[in-house]
Amino acid sequence: MRKLFLFISTIGFLISCNTTNDDNLIKIRNGQDFLIFGHFYGECIGEVCVETFKLTDQKIFEDTLDDYSGKKLNFVELESGKFKQVEDLISFFPKQLLNDTKTTFGCPDCTDGGGLFIQYSESGNVKSWRIDQSKDNIPSYLHSFIDKVNEKISLINN
What we know:
Elements: H1 2-16, E1 26-27, E2 34-40, E3 50-55, E4 60-63, E5 75-77, H2 80-86, H3 96-99, E6 104-105, E7 115-122, E8 125-132, H4 143-157
Parallel strand pairs: 6-8
Antiparallel strand pairs: 1-8, 2-3, 2-7, 3-4, 4-5, 7-8
């Protein structure tokens, strides 16, 4: 039974590494700018395995669904103290990422190392990425940003 679960999990992870550009750019109705950031770990048990947050210029929200795919999100507002801890994250966002044609970097969580989910909205244009946590598998321009994202997730969770 364990081998069957491992096989099915491996297939699921490998399929998640293949993305299309069709979902990369979408329009949202209200046009509000935001940064959604989070991490996910498939071989993990507990609340901290999938953490997703939405940062605007005034508030921070946490996703309550913890959907591994990042396709189903339901945000609730967090206290203003949490916002103060993470409000500068947007300044670390690498603008070079907006010009990259890839939507997946490395193979996020394929080797149980976890991955990051990033979604960025500017003037109603939303782009999404899945990024491997292993720096060996991603461009160097993303290194400091993923460090900062992981740092901010830790701050929120403490």
